[in-house]
Amino acid sequence: MKNRTKMIIILTVFGLISGAVLSLVYMISKPYIEKNMMAEQKRAIFSVVPNAKSYEEKEKNGMKYFECKDASGNVVGIALPAKGNGYQGEIKLMIGLTPGLKRITGLEILEQVETPGLGGRISEDSFLNQFKGISTEPQVNYVKNKKPEKPNEIRAITGATISSRSVVAIINKNIKAFRGK
Question: Exposure winner among 1, 21, 75, 179, fewest CB in 10 A?
C-alpha cells in the first residue's frame, strides 16, 4: 500500500509541475503569437486586395471585414476573413473582393491542417491563383479532372477534392452571409 501511495503522490506532483510549466510557457508566448497573427492578417489583406494602400476594420451582418482604400481614399476592395471545416480541421481564409462583391481579387490561406502533399496543396499559388478574377455570381464552383469552362469555376486539386470543395464552400457561405442573403 505504501508503494501505491508513493507512486500516486509522485505522479500528482509531476503532473502539477508539468501543467504549471506548460501554463507559464503559454502565458509568455501568447502575446508573440497574437502579434504574429496580426502581422499575417495585415499581410494577407494587402495581398488579396492588390491596389490597397490602407484599410479600415468594419462590421456588417455580424461579420468583421476590412474596407480597403487606395492612396486617394477610394474604396478598391474588401478583405473578408472566413473560416470553415476542411478535411482534417478548420481552414481560415482571407478573401479579397471587388467593392460590389462581384469578383474575387485574391485568396490567402491563413491557417490549415490538411494532409501534407494532398489537401495541404490548397496553400499553393497554383491553386490560389485560380480564384483571382473569378465571378462570385452565381456562386463559385469547382470541377474535377477538366478545365474550368465558366467564369465562376476553379479546378479542384486531384487527390484533394474534399479540401478543394471545402475552400469553395467556405467562400460561398461567407460571401452569402456577408451579402445578407
Answer: 1
